[in-house]
Amino acid sequence: MNPPHAEPNSSAPSDAELCRRVARRRPPAAARAALAELYARHAPALLAYLRRRRADLAEDLLQETFLILARRAGQFEGPSARPWLLAIARSQLLQAARRERTAADHTARLATPAAPATAPDPDLAAALARLPPDQAELLDLRFVQDLTHAQTAQLLGVSLRTAKARTAAALAALRRQLER
Amino acid sequence: MNDPTNCIERLRHMPAPSAPDPRPLLDRFEAQARPPRPASALLAALLVPALAIAVHLARPATHAAPLHHALHAFGSHLADQLQTPPQP
Predict the structure, then answer these.
(1) What's the ipTM?
(2) pTM for the full model?
(3) How many inter-chain contacts (A to B, CB under 8 Å) are there?
(4) Which of A15, A21, A48, B48 has the fewest CB atoms inside 10 Å of its own CB, making it the most exposed?
């Protein structure tokens, strides 16, 4: 199961504290351990998000996302690094798409299935795959990654009202797909 | 199926894959986190050869290296050849 935003227990350091250790870089072993802990907390959910968008690039983009987090760790504010990591990952996906358009092999890439059918709920996976990509992404961010409406709106660059309306529309579309 | 809550619950329970081994990531992080070479060391690395060249060039011609003489002779020979009109 995916425990989105699973908060660490009270004795475990928060994401903010781990980011501070990564940003300090010293001692190197502590910084490495902090990054490893952030990876353990967030990499599985992030990888799931990336695989549903681009299965062929997911693992490379996952590593790039955490390296960017490590470089910018000093800028992190907030209780959970998950929304920030998702924003970085999404930006990496968009950059990768731009690079491919430049390299003129985007058409071939589009033929690659974005989501491997490995989910134990294959009906749901298939229904999501039939949705327009922006609706599938919105449902992923809102319910799989468990972002709030406000976080989803910020990440997608839309207003809160728009995010809520689009979520309702995406849920209705998903229901229709599941009824097929 | 018609219940939106059901959709939401199914989405919430989508499994996450196992993430790959983090060691390559952590190794790259450590490599990037290493402190850069101090500016003074870089300056010294550039200054030492520059000083050596300057000292060499400042030496009197009588002490010039054999290679210098050979290059000078070759240059003079080349100049003579270029000034000589072609034979019919």
Answers:
(1) 0.74
(2) 0.69
(3) 96
(4) B48
